[in-house]
Each structure stands twice: as C-alpha cells, then as structure tokens.
Design brief:
The chain is an alpha/beta fold. The chain is 40% helix and 25% strand. The protein is built from 8 helices and 10 strands. Strands 1, 2, 3, 4, 5, 6 and 7 form a 7-stranded mixed β-sheet that branches. Strands 8-10-9 form a 3-stranded antiparallel β-sheet. A hairpin with a 2-residue loop joins strand 3 and strand 4.
C-alpha cells in the first residue's frame, strides 16, 4: 500500500519500452538467511498470478563472471524484496519472461559493484532488464527523510554509484537496498546506459497522513 503506487511509475515506463526476455532483480536480504550474495539457477517462483521461471542459462553466465555470488535458494525463502516485483512484471508480460533473483545480505561497495559488473558482462547483447528493489529512509520525520533521500537520488540521476554510496554513508540513510542500487548502476553503465531519471518520490506519510515517522520510496528509470 505504500511502495506499490510509487513502483508502478517505473513499470509504466517499462511497459512503454517493450518486453524483455530476461529480468535480473536485485534485492536486499532482510531475513539474514543464506549466503551473502545469492542467486538461484533453477525452478520457478509462484505468485497469485502464476509461475515465473528462473533463467538458468543467464544465472550460470552471471556465476561464471563472478567469484563472490553463490547458488543458495535459502537466501530467498523468507525474503520479500524481490518477489513483490514479480506481480508487476506478470501483469505486463504474463509468463512470457524469465528472471534471475540475486539477494544481497552483503552490501559493501566493492561487492555490490562486482555483482553489477558480472551481470553487465553476462547479459551484454541480450534483451535484458535489470531491476533494483529498495526502500529509502526509514522512520524519520518527513522533512528529514525527504532531504536525505533526495541527496542520494541526485547521485542516482548522475549515474554515480560511488557518490550514491557515499550519500548513504555520510548522511546515514537507512535505505535497505543500497547495495542493489550500486549494482544496478554499475550493470546499467556496462550495458550502455546514458541517463537516469527519478520519476516519483513519496513517503508512507502520503498514504497515512502521519508525517512524524515515515519511510521513503522512489521510482527511477535508467535508460540508453
């Protein structure tokens, strides 16, 4: 109810762009289970809209480009950050796409960049979309949260992953998926991205009317 209307802005833009064959989705590991950086190479994920198949070939190609990503389904068992993206994609494309989930328990800058590099190199020349799932600032007053978040989002619009990561550290942003965003920007630039645009920013206060302790949400597109 909080993040969905914001995320829909990104999926609207994705719908206009056309259908990918494969979607690589980065998300933080809130539960703390499994390997530090984990993907799956087989099977499917089931939502109320049906089943989505893992792209095993792409997953194995990503693994071949990285020394730090593990195959570990347990990292995904109790985590929501990736699965909540699937109904949006299924609404757009039905079952006519495959995906690779990569869960980030480890979100340091170098590791995040390495994942992004592996994905960029593994998917170059293919019809792929890369998605990063994250919330922004957690449980701060609206004015403070928005001020902090927009510092990080400006760095995202500049496609500067180092500046984005520094904003997280310097301003103590409590974004849960900063590693996935760093990986996304890294991969996107390898894949030829030239511009980034924040298309929506809201907080939970915009839904509840309580602006004393909000969570921030943003939708952005990165394109060639």
């Amino acid at each position: 109810m909080y993040s969905g209307p914001v995320a829909a802005h990104s999926y609207y833009n994705l719908a206009i762009d056309g259908k990918p064959d494969t979607v690589v989705i980065f998300g933080p590991n809130h539960a703390g289970a499994g390997s530090g950086l984990a993907l799956m190479t087989e099977g499917f994920w089931r939502t109320p809209l049906g089943d989505v198949q893992i792209d095993g070939a792409t997953a194995h190609e990503i693994l071949s480009q990285s020394e730090i990503i593990d195959v570990d389904a347990s990292a995904h068992m109790h985590e929501h950050s990736i699965e909540v993206q699937l109904p949006f994609l299924q609404y757009l494309y039905g079952s006519a796409f495959k995906f690779v989930p990569i869960s980030f328990l480890m979100q340091d800058y170098e590791s995040s960049r390495e994942v992004g590099q592996a994905v960029g190199e593994a998917t170059a020349g293919t019809n792929v979309v890369v998605i990063a799932s994250t919330d922004m600032t957690h449980y701060e007053p609206q004015e403070t949260a928005e001020q902090k978040d927009k510092i990080a989002l400006r760095a995202l619009e500049e496609l500067d992953e180092r500046k984005f990561y520094s904003a997280i550290e310097d301003h103590r942003l409590t974004a849960c998926g900063y590693g996935p965003v760093v990986a996304l920007v890294t991969a996107a630039k390898i894949l030829g991205a030239k511009k980034s645009r924040v298309i929506c920013y809201k907080t939970s206060g915009d839904v509840t009317g309580d602006y004393t302790a909000v969570v921030g949400y943003a939708a952005a597109t990165i394109t060639k």
